[in-house]
Amino acid sequence: MNSQSCIKRGSRHDPGTDLQCFSACALLLQLLSLRIMKVSVAALSILMVMAFSSLTSSAPWSIITSPFCCYKYNKRIPRHLVQSYVETGSQCSKPAVVFITNNGKVCANPRDAWVRDYINYVKSRSNPTGK
Prior knowledge:
This protein is α+β, with helices and mostly antiparallel strands and 131 residues long. The protein contains four helices and three strands, in the order αααβββα. A three-stranded antiparallel beta sheet has the order 1-2-3, with helices on one face. It is rod-shaped and about 80 Å long. One of its GO terms (molecular function) is CCR chemokine receptor binding.
């Protein structure tokens, strides 16, 4: 049976032909769904590879900047508590300097004089020769 005999409408034909046409259509739908599924799996695989490659390419950037954002600034803390610092990235709506202490992290306004002083203090401790 060819596909044209299933497509013709309005012509009289044997009821067995209807069953054959139905089976042929069901088979065609199964084949199409398998093809669509293969394309979907391929597309999903490509998207996953793109997502993972973008994560790995952004790894060095996340080391340089803070992995979180500050939503409010803390008050001044004693300078001797500061061990290191990191600046929040451009992905954050509020720029901040995050001071790392023994007790945790402290968000500070990078425009404040005391914050700039603490940054210079940390830099001088990590580079005592001044080079």
